[in-house]
Design goal:
29% helix, 3-stranded mixed sheet, 95 residues, single chain, alpha+beta, flat
Length: 95
């Protein structure tokens, strides 16, 4: 083994892979957000409003990015939890 070769992390196990488009998502919420359209039927020429996966461009517009394992996630959505408020409630409940 070459000492100068980079050490790569092992491949990550898929978490929430879409069987339609093949993209992997870091959370089930992200997976759900990547689907759009009417649930009653799939998108096609006669049903352009049918259920489908969003394009990569549409995902990026929604704020999705990929992590180091290639999984898609929304950093803004992940950062919406007010951890200070949760800690304060836990401290008050313990007192």
């Amino acid at each position: 083994m070459d000492a100068s070769a980079p050490v790569l992390p092992p491949p990550a196990k898929p978490r929430n892979v879409c069987t339609s488009c093949g993209l992997d998502f870091n959370s089930i919420e992200g997976f759900d957000r990547h689907r759009t359209g009417t649930h009653a039927y799939l998108a096609d020429e006669t049903h352009p409003d049918g259920r489908r996966c969003r394009t990569i461009e549409e995902l990026r517009v929604l704020g999705f990015v990929q992590d180091q394992h290639g999984r898609w996630y929304q950093p803004a959505a992940a950062g919406t939890v007010d951890w200070d408020a949760i800690r304060a409630r836990r401290a008050n409940a313990a007192a």
